Amino acid sequence: MALFDLTIDATSGNARATTYETAHGTFSTPMFMPVGTHATVKGIPGELLRGLGSQVVLANTYHLYMRPGADVVAEAGGVARFMNYDGPMLTDSGGFQLFSLAHMMKEDAQGVNFQALDYDGSKHRWTPETNMAIQEQIGADIVMQLDQCIGYPAEKKDVAASTKLSWEWAARCLAAHARPDQTLFGIVQGGMHRDLRAESVRHLVDIEQASLAAGGRRFGGFGIGGYSVGEDHEVMFETLGDTARSLPADRPRYLMGVGNPTTLVRAVREGVDMFDCVLPTRTGRMGTAFSHTGRMNLRNAKYTRDFTPLDHDCDCPVCTQYTRAYLRHLVKQNEMLGGILLSMHNIYFLTKLMARAREAILADAYEEFYQAWMHSPAAKDY
Question: How many folded domains does the chain comprise?
């Protein structure tokens, strides 16, 4: 299997089971990626992540650029070695962080100026070209184009302008990216507008074809951005399926920033392959756990004398060793171990859920898997 080639192992309806080759190992989809924004999945050592089912970890370009610096990460041997993670990694471009902090940045057609008020107040300028150079230094296996992600709600004319800027920057990122052991994913934008999403896909495909005709490279996959930015998930699903299935079938489809279990199950049914989100660790630190009986708040008094496993249908290291009563005690005492253990469980829950989804696709039984999930208590995960 060649580097950055996708093999479609099976389909079941629109759902896909695939295998993808990177320089630091092969991963299988559907797949959930834990988020390690600052080169750490909060509270969890890199060497434990594989045991929790992690195949790929995501890190953030903006935050690593600011601290400790892309040059430091490069000197350490790349982000995976820096954080002691034995597997493929992906870096987000950091564009979402810049555009979500509107008070600290100003964009133009060529790039973006920003002041790092969340760090030391220093001033910087990024272009698609400099962003690619930074991500090449950080050294993840998969890098994302610099794009503009607009919030919701927004005027359609503003969404259209943002979408156009994103595909223009995609072309510049593809031309600038050169590291052969990395691959670049383009990103589809377009807000909640089906026509803008379709236009974004068409332009990304045209950009790739022009690059190949000139002897350049292709996109290794495609991110689907601009969702989970304030809209209800039902609004997202009005356009997600059409968007995912309009992308080239021979590349991974990555829905960015979505991580609650039921949304993953539904999105796989629409043809999505990859997911990431801070939700499992963020909710874990808040004392909340995913489970086969629905979302659990461990602060609830009913768990005070509940000496049973956290989730009776889970075989993760937390559920096989700790009780609900003990976990509640840790959470109520604000002990860091409580957040760590619940984060471990939540990551495992999502990676195992996607492994089960893959098994269902391989058996051509995804619709049955989907219906069983949607009619189970586990679907109540909000």
Answer: 2
Q: Is the CB of residue 188 less than 8 Å from the CB of residue 198?
A: no
Q: Which of 141, 147, 276, 311 does the annotation list as catalytic?
A: 276
Q: Are residues 222 and 110 both part of a single domain?
A: yes
Residue 268: the pLDDT is 98
Q: Could you tell me the pLDDT band of residue 174, with boundaries at 50, 70 and 90?
A: very high
**354 and 254 co-located in one domain:** no
Whether 257 and 319 share a structural domain = no
Helix extents (H) in 26-94: 46-49, 61-66, 70-75, 79-82
Stretch (H or E) spanning 63: helix 61-66
What is the rounded CA–CA span in Å between residue 26 and residue 192? Answer: 33
Residue 10 lies in domain = 6-276
Same domain, 159 and 90: yes
Active-site option among 92, 141, 147, 273: 92
Tokens representing 200? 């974004």
276 given a catalytic annotation: yes
Looking at the structure, do residues 288 and 270 belong to the same domain, yes or no? no
Backbone angles phi, psi at 229, to 5 degrees: -120, 25
Are 176 and 133 in contact by the 8 Å Cβ rule? The answer is yes
The DSSP element (H or E) to which 26 belongs, if any, is strand 25-29
What are 21-34's pLDDT values in tens digits? 999 999 999 999 99
Share the mean pLDDT of the chain: 96
Q: Is 92 a catalytic residue?
A: yes
For 297-333, write each residue's pLDDT tens digit. Answer: 999 999 999 999 999 999 999 999 999 999 999 999 9
CA 73 to the chain's CA centroid = 21
The secondary structure of 120-131 as a DSSP string is T--EEEE-HHHH
- Mean pLDDT value across residues 233-253: 97
